[in-house]
Amino acid sequence: MSRPAEAILDEAMSLLPSGWAWPERDGGSVLAALLEPFAQEFADFEQLAEQCFEQIDPRNATSCLTDFERVLGPDPCRGDTAGLPLALRQQSAHQRWIARGGASVAYFKQVAASYGATIEITDYTTSQADWLRVGDELVGPPCQFVWRINLPNVIDEQQFCASASVAGDRLYDFTISDLECVLRRLKPAHTDILFTYGA
Containing H/E element for 196? Predict the structure, then answer.
């Protein structure tokens, strides 16, 4: 807890040695006037140190955010984050700072939830005669390493419109979610992900 300059000055005055050379110990003395600038500097330092407690978490960091980004290196999915809004930079740094990895469905759902998306994951299991039931989908051996993620939110969907579009515009286009890159980076190396978009 930081202290005001007056409290630091009072403590400094109380710690001075006793004797005839230090007769004036009240706040208005010449000695107090000499020590007052040092007390103010110590008060500023304590206040700055207290503010640094909030900077150790990337979600709250403002002055230390560039240090987090420097240590983490460039974001492989977003590239240079300097032009992004502060809240998005803090979120990105926090996600990369706390990432521990995992290979479970629950882990990937949690990663998506931290980006504000609810996903559905379909994990394919190789078909075996003693497990199959009528109507089950047949899955061959290579597909056991493929899983599908359904991202419900489509970002910046654009459809061709005769009155507004011009020659050369696509009939249908949308921007893929940043989450695709994040999940591709985190997936186990021997697997592959198929992404589907829709409600």
Answer: strand 192-197
Decide: 62 and 68 in contact? Cβ < 8 Å.
no
The structure tokens listed for 10 are 């009072």
- Location of structure tokens 């089950």: 136
Q: Residues 96, 75: contact at Cβ < 8 Å?
A: yes
Global pTM exceeds 0.90: no
Q: Tell me the C-alpha distance between 111 and 181, whole Å.
A: 12
List pLDDT tens digits, range 173-189: 666 777 888 888 888 88
Q: Which parts of 20-118 fold into alpha helices (H)?
A: 30-55, 65-72, 86-98, 105-114
Please report, as a single letter, which amino acid is at residue 61: A
End-to-end CA distance of the chain: 50
Sequence letter at residue 65: L
Q: CA-CA distances (angstroms) from residue 105 to 94, 123, 140, 148, 175? A: 21, 8, 21, 11, 25
- Return the SS3 of 11: helix
d(CA 179, CA 99): 14
DSSP tag of 118: -
Which DSSP category does 42 fall into? H
